[in-house]
Amino acid sequence: MEALLDKNTYTIPHLEGKPDMLVCQNLKKVYPTGKGDYVVLDDLHLAVRQGEFVSIIGHSGCGKSTLLTMIAGLNEISGGKVYVDQQEITGAGPDRAVVFQSPSLLPWLTAIQNVMIGVKQVFPHASSAEKTDICKYYLDKVGLGNDFHKKASSLSQGMQQRVGIARAFALKPKILLLDEPFGMLDSLTRGELQDVLLEIWQKEKITALAITHDVDESIFLADRVIMMTSGPYAKIGDELAIPFDRPRNRKDVLEHPDYYDYRGYLINFLNH
Ligand SMILES: Nc1ncnc2c1ncn2[C@@H]1O[C@H](COP(=O)(O)OP(=O)(O)OP(=O)(O)O)[C@@H](O)[C@H]1O
């Protein structure tokens, strides 16, 4: 365990000299309930550097989605502050794109029309050809180059989530927020989409924060895994830097001599 903690001092080459893109300060969330106030998160501090990929793990109900939706500006902040690129957030904005477990596409629209909705809002002054190019570029990147004009309702769940990922990247956000993005997919599709996500993330050098229940996924994706304590009054309990080389491929990660130490460390946290 000590050796692993030492590894937290490893420098991650692509983060050297990068400023913080996301800062959560003394964050608190209280849900009023019939039985009184329920304090989900309390005094939570988190800083994520520009271009960093952070995974968040923690027990079911500890407040991971609450944290993510507060950062997204979709859930009221009860106390503390969230800063994105040094600006305090006051609500949702195009600087933060969210990918939820279910992409909630408009089923009667095509793949490209679904991506276009957000692109039109974020780039109102771009020409129609430019907007179409942005949509096509990201749909192509997620492997839907031949499916631009298919209705969302005719796409498989995995393909719909590919559209969800394309839609988020197409907004060119500063931060990508992912809430169990692959939770509903079979393991093969899940693996494929993890690869797609990392490939685009690597190219765009975007800051990303992903909630996952899957310890292997948390390691494969992230530069750092954040472990949340169980609620109420949840906060960051521990963190682990994952200094595996980038770009990553699954085989190299799984065969890394330290892989099972990292995995064991995270599972040990969850078991206590
Ligand atoms: N609107 C709400 N009103 C009252 N309580 C809520 C509300 N939303 C969430 N909660 C409670 O807050 C706690 C944290 O919920 P949250 O969904 O953030 O946890 P989570 O860690 O994302 O869970 P999971 O891993 O199961 O998705 C839970 O106990 C949940 O029941």
Automatic annotation (TrEMBL):
<protein>
    <submittedName>
        <fullName>ABC transporter ATP-binding protein</fullName>
    </submittedName>
</protein>
<dbReference type="InterPro" id="IPR003439">
    <property type="entry name" value="ABC_transporter-like_ATP-bd"/>
</dbReference>
<keyword id="KW-0472">Membrane</keyword>
<dbReference type="InterPro" id="IPR005890">
    <property type="entry name" value="NO3_transporter_ATP-bd-like"/>
</dbReference>
<keyword id="KW-1003">Cell membrane</keyword>
<keyword id="KW-0813">Transport</keyword>
<dbReference type="GO" id="GO:0005524">
    <property type="term" value="F:ATP binding"/>
</dbReference>
<dbReference type="InterPro" id="IPR027417">
    <property type="entry name" value="P-loop_NTPase"/>
</dbReference>
<dbReference type="InterPro" id="IPR050166">
    <property type="entry name" value="ABC_transporter_ATP-bind"/>
</dbReference>
<dbReference type="InterPro" id="IPR017871">
    <property type="entry name" value="ABC_transporter-like_CS"/>
</dbReference>
<dbReference type="InterPro" id="IPR003593">
    <property type="entry name" value="AAA+_ATPase"/>
</dbReference>
<keyword id="KW-0067">ATP-binding</keyword>
<feature type="domain" description="ABC transporter">
    <location>
        <begin position="22"/>
        <end position="255"/>
    </location>
</feature>
<dbReference type="Pfam" id="PF00005">
    <property type="entry name" value="ABC_tran"/>
</dbReference>
<keyword id="KW-0547">Nucleotide-binding</keyword>
